[in-house]
């Protein structure tokens, strides 16, 4: 992974307790950033904060359900109170529900997906922007999915929410480009995460079919997503905003 100098900068990561969020939080810290770890799983997020602190990094554990806007606002405010600023954000918190026929999908399943995967990203972006607007600088990376670029069989609500993240990103990027704030999204393919492990074990994901449809013939890693996020947050991507970057082993190129 490329290295960056994020010394003196503060990062905010949602869904930070495991998977892509934890990998990205570790990468931010390893490159000198103070990191706010935001997750609704208190035990796991506090464990990661302790790990990073023991390694000599600045880390703040914040328990937050991103579907609650006030909790998001409080988490952003706590980050700024602790670190004095907010320079980078990875809005990664997300869930998956079992696949369903679109004609049989429940409103409850749709609302569960939308409240976290889309509304949670919107709330995070909104409150991050308020601080970054005041600073006149910042970089936000939202987490969409390959499902934000193509259709997903049996996953209409998830796909709709992830497409929404791409649209949200592009719209906000247009508005904030003149204000010194860049906003992009990563679109991961199937990544080695606890969520994918659970889906595979439950029979909700056909791993062989997924690998067959992926030109690179393997799953991605959390570290590979982290590498893309850090690049988008760095000065190396200073002329990049409004992008939806696939990190999917070639899946959406097929």
Automatic annotation (TrEMBL):
Answer yes or no on keyword Methyltransferase. no
Name the CDD domains on file.
SDR_c
Which superkingdom is the protein from?
Bacteria
Keyword NAD: yes or no? Answer: yes
Per the record, the coiled-coil ranges are none
EC numbers, comma separated:
1.1.1.47
InterPro entries assigned to the protein according to its UniProt record, in alphabetical order: KR_dom, NAD(P)-bd_dom_sf, Sc_DH/Rdtase_CS, SDR_fam
Keywords from the named record: NAD, Oxidoreductase
What is an example of a GO molecular function annotated in this UniProt entry?
Answer: glucose 1-dehydrogenase [NAD(P)+] activity
Q: What is the main EC category here?
A: oxidoreductase
What Pfam families would the database entry show?
adh_short_C2
Name the family.
Belongs to the short-chain dehydrogenases/reductases (SDR) family.
Indicate what this protein is called per its UniProt record: Glucose 1-dehydrogenase
Species per Swiss-Prot/TrEMBL record: Streptomyces carpinensis
């Amino acid at each position: 992974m490329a290295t960056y100098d994020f010394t003196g900068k503060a990062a905010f990561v949602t869904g930070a307790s495991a998977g892509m969020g934890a990998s990205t939080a570790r990468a931010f810290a390893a490159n000198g950033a103070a990191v706010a770890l935001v997750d609704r799983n208190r035990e796991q997020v506090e464990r990661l904060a302790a790990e990073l602190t023991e390694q000599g990094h600045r880390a703040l554990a914040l328990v937050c359900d991103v579907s609650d806007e006030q909790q998001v606002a409080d988490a952003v405010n706590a980050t700024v109170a602790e670190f004095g600023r907010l320079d980078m954000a990875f809005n990664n918190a997300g869930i998956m529900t079992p696949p369903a026929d679109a004609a049989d999908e429940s409103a409850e399943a749709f609302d569960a997906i939308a409240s976290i995967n889309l509304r949670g990203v919107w709330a995070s972006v909104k409150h991050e922007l308020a601080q970054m607007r005041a600073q006149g600088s910042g970089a936000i990376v939202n987490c969409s999915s390959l499902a934000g670029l193509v259709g997903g069989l049996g996953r209409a609500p998830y796909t709709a929410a992830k497409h929404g993240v791409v649209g949200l990103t592009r719209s906000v990027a247009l508005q904030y480009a003149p204000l010194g704030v860049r906003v992009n999204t990563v679109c991961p393919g199937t990544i080695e995460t606890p969520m994918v492990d659970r889906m595979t074990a439950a029979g909700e994901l056909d791993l062989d079919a997924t690998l067959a449809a992926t030109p690179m013939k393997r799953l991605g890693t959390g570290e590979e997503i982290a590498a893309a996020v850090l690049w988008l947050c760095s000065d190396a991507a200073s002329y990049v905003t409004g992008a939806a970057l696939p990190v999917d082993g070639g899946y959406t190129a097929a």
